Amino acid sequence: MNQGNEALDFRLLNEFQRDFPLISAPFEVLARQLETDELEVLASLRRLHEEGAISRVGAVFSPRRIGASTLAALAVPADRLDAVADEVSAHTEVNHNYEREHQWNLWFVATAPSQSQLDQLMTRIADESACPLIRLPLLEEFHIDLGFDLSGRESASAQAARVQRRPAQLPESAWQLSVDEQRLMAVLQDGLPLELQPYVALAERAALDETRVLQLLEAWLARGLIKRFGVVVRHHELGWTANAMCVWDIPDATVSHLGEQLARQDGVTLCYRRARDLPSWPYNLYCMIHGRERTEVEARVNRINRDLALQDYPHQVLFSLRRYKQRGARYVDLGIARAEP
Predict the structure, then answer these.
(1) To 5 degrees, how large is the angle CA 333–CA 334–CA 338?
(2) Less Cβ crowding at N or C end of the chain, within 10 Å?
(3) DSSP assignment letter at 281
(4) Which residues pair with 73 in a beta bridge?
(5) Looking at the DSSP assignment, which residues form a beta bridge with residue 119?
(6) Backbone CA torsion sign across 107, 307, 14, 321
(7) Which 8-state DSSP code applies to residue 277?
(8) For 147, left (φ over 0), alpha (ψ -120 to 50), or beta?
(9) 94: pLDDT strictly greater than 80
């Protein structure tokens, strides 16, 4: 972050990860809260984006509300890892791709418009890589991407929200988008234009008007299609470099109860249940813990295991080593936005 604007940068990154204003001049609202002007806010956000501290300002969509998605992993020989990672990242459907410390060493998330298209993609990746592949679709979410407190201390409101949360039920089928929704989705995937009137610019790209864009965004938030709307930070660039995926093999009868408890633990940034892929991968309960130091994360994992009596279940901790790709998921082809209204 730029030293001269460090305080402003931190507040922009930390305080506006959700509840971004859905009005014609949203940056004016931010400027009033920050006691500055909207041109300074825009300049800071543009710089933070160029520096890689934020990936975008915009929507984080709820999993499986649109299309189909899965977490997957490959077991790649070390001497082929970079080449295979590049092949996987080249697929537009892949939005996250990481090396982790494990025999299953290349972990990626893929999203496609339909389950059949996702299945085809998984087959292509397995064939291209010539490596064993496991697929771990989401079954139940307990705490997913509600923002990330960069101070390392959750606010009272965030703590209350964590305690009050209940597991969200996944939809029986994906949301069927109207033509207007497809156009907006296509241009929103990369985030809001960092302009004084971003919704006007977004509307022009989607061949809609600003009022319609704001109506759709409000509806998506109300129906849970959008998980949160605001600044999407990139943790690694901000010093949170010790990131671990923790997994446990929990009996199906008790996994939901333990998942609720795990989601409430201090330091847990994501928590969910996924399908097993037997016999290769028996684990069904997951959480992510982000930290600045590996020892800090290990201490949190040990405390969670002790406090929730999870140490007696088979479990593993997979630290991230390299990030090959990280961006928002693509749900709609950009060509749709260019269609005639």
Answers:
(1) 125
(2) C
(3) B
(4) 107, 134
(5) none
(6) negative
(7) B
(8) left
(9) yes
Count of other CB atoms within 10 angstroms of residue 166: 8
Q: Is 4 helix (H, G, I), strand (E, B) or coil?
A: helix
> Does the bond joining 279 to the residue before it have cis omega, within 30 degrees of 0?
yes
Beta bridge partners of 243: 290
Q: If pLDDT is split at 50, 70 and 90, which confidence band does 72 have?
A: very high
DSSP annotation of 102: S
Region for 8 from its dihedrals, namely left if φ exceeds 0, alpha if ψ lies in -120 to 50, beta otherwise: alpha
What are the C-alpha distances in Å from 177 to residues 7, 65, 107, 165, 170? 40, 10, 29, 28, 17
- Distance of CA 330 to CAs 75, 90, 333, Å? 25, 13, 7
Q: Which residue has the tokens 């965030």?
A: 158
Give the pair of three-digit tokens for residue 157. 């409101």
On whether the CB atoms of residues 267 and 240 are closer than 8 A, the answer is no
pLDDT in tens, 288-320: 999 889 999 999 999 999 999 999 999 999 999
pLDDT band (50, 70, 90) for residue 101: very high
129, 83 contact by CB (below 8 A): no
DSSP per residue, 166-220: -PBPPPSS-----HHHHHHHHHHTT---SSSSHHHHHHHHHTS-HHHHHHHHHHH
Tokens 């590049």 locate to 86
First to last CA, the chain: 42
Question: What CA–CA distance (Å, rounded) separates 271 from 146?
Answer: 11
* Residue 296, token pair as written in the block: 């800090």
* Strand residues in the chain grouped as ranges (E): 54-61, 68-74, 94-100, 106-112, 133-136, 138-144, 226-233, 242-248, 268-274, 285-291, 315-326
pLDDT surpassing 80 at residue 109: yes
Q: How far apart are CA 147 and CA 169, in angstroms?
A: 20
Q: Which residues pair with 274 in a beta bridge?
A: 138
